[in-house]
């Protein structure tokens, strides 16, 4: 390491630099964090307010703990109600109840069982309506009140003391939440396409994409190595002309090629066939150029030494040159991988008869998020599934971008 | 093992000059032949033609009895050590040395045995599992040698193998290579531009210039009887001093005059250069090796064999002192003369530079006048127009 500038000013600049860098990094990574978080959420959990990055689920207690039977019972709390401390299990969300308003304070609501209260026989006129006056229990004291509404609400049983129960509107209670990722998002999205089970068929597309990607990358590596070596080291008539034409093809935008390529695929009867996604992309001018440049950089003496050692051209290529070209091959494989994995437009054109069995990941993902889709969590689960392999590939391959072993055998 | 024979070999590049021009050279079986010359002289091209890395434009090249003009490199049964070693960076030392055998489909345990033997011979045993990048320059050099000897080839070719090493290691490797060649007895063709390597290593040395072979001779003969001005100037370090001089023959005595100096030549020199006698009144190029000067007090010679120079620069080397001086006469410009004038246009104006090599016990100051005795019986004489020796 070199000597660093010292002093308070330099420190301040350095701190500021890091603050800015961290802030930008946080902004850049935030959408990704949201996607990961949403992919683990329950549908009910996605649009809650305030939004949360942590996937949550309802806290429940076993039914028999609160004196009922059946499914586990969700737990609520009553924040701000000191008379209802602790957690309360909602044993019945449809209990009949009545709202009473005390005559001395018409704004206050007392929620009681629908059958509670005794008519005093008196009446009172509220907003032009004549209402019966009841004598109701208000926390131990009897007050006069009128019944403003008959409705249904929740019967809550104290989790700590199952003998204590209260009736209240469910809206007045706050559901207890705990950390709870929903892994089924992934299994549902991967499962075979089936509306019954909510399967989205991403698994099949994933298999197709993996197959296409592996074959495209392998094909690109092999053709680029052979072409690059020929252009770099084999003398033949018209070599530079052919190379220039080959390289010139990089300049032609893909959209120009779509119609002729589509026609060609029709002629070959490759429409709706994965082979149409593989064969046209196993040849890459860019990769050939990359390999040629790398081979040119390998000292000719190494090849001459191999020639003198009795090695044939193909032995030299596969045993000497290719091992030396590993960094270039890794770069090429990474680019080829990303291209094949993410390609969308060509598959959309050529796999077009609605045959979902031959769809690739990018196509299936685009149908997940359609206009009528409500499964936001599944869309994100699919997106995360599609994103993970490229990220892993990049993490493993990136050291090759900086590594260069070719020159280490010299001097 | 085999002899290597060049017969009228020419290498012509398209639209270019001849890199090698009509080369005739017999390298005997088991001989250590050094090809030496300045850069661009064609020595490396000649070597690469033996290797089969360069096409031969004309002539016949034979290894042993076999004409190999059209034999690919791998089938010539030769091994080559490159200047930059050209090790396979991704292979361990063992794989590097064994690669040729592996290509030849030799059995695994046979390969291991021979690699172990070669490594043992070169002191590489403990490095066999390392990659080249984990080795020092000298070790890589030895791996390159190991790769050559493991195959027991007919001929070793070495292309400036020591030029990437530091001075100390170079001396060490030089003697290692000499001993190795002596032990194996394999024909060796060794290319270098370093005339110290040429002199110390070769059984015979072939001096080349501009694609043309100048002289092939054992080192000592090259030094004592140079075939022309170029060889005289190229071999020896510091180089031979060449001064254009006027010859006067007075009876049995021959005098050379140059830049205000007059030197009597010992009659013994005339035995070696009888042609000098007929040169009265003409110019010749007088060649004096730096070591044939001595301080006057070290070598008692008559005053007419002593020159007085003003010391322009004194380099104390410890064992000896190099005294630089300038003689007030234009340097020789004949083809093949050392390129002082080309390198340094000033030299034309200021005269001919000479270097004298005297015993290291003397202290010489810059600007001081020094009296130097000349061993005139060892001087050389060349024709000033053709550069041929006056034999």
From TrEMBL, chain A:
Keyword flag Ribosomal protein: no
Membrane topology note: Multi-pass membrane protein
Membrane-crossing residue ranges in chain numbering: 12-34, 210-231, 243-262, 274-295, 316-341, 378-397
Record keywords, A-Z: Cell membrane, Membrane, Transmembrane, Transmembrane helix, Transport
Coiled-coil portions: none
Gene3D superfamilies, per the entry: MetI-like
Subcellular location: Cell membrane
Protein name per UniProt: Unannotated protein
Native species: freshwater metagenome
UniProtKB/TrEMBL annotation, chain B:
Gene3D superfamilies given in the database record: 2.40.50.100, Nucleic acid-binding proteins, P-loop containing nucleotide triphosphate hydrolases
GO MF annotations in UniProt: ABC-type transporter activity; ATP binding; ATP hydrolysis activity
Signal peptide: none
Cellular-component GO terms for this entry: ATP-binding cassette (ABC) transporter complex, substrate-binding subunit-containing
Keywords noted in UniProt: ATP-binding, Nucleotide-binding, Transport
PROSITE patterns the record matches: ABC_TRANSPORTER_1, ABC_TRANSPORTER_2
Domain ABC transporter positions: 4-235
GO terms classed as biological process: carbohydrate transport
UniProt-listed PANTHER family: MALTODEXTRIN IMPORT ATP-BINDING PROTEIN MSMX (PTHR43875), OSMOPROTECTIVE COMPOUNDS UPTAKE ATP-BINDING PROTEIN GGTA (PTHR43875:SF1)
Protein name, entry field: Unannotated protein
Source organism of this protein record: freshwater metagenome
Lineage of the species this protein comes from: unclassified sequences, metagenomes, ecological metagenomes
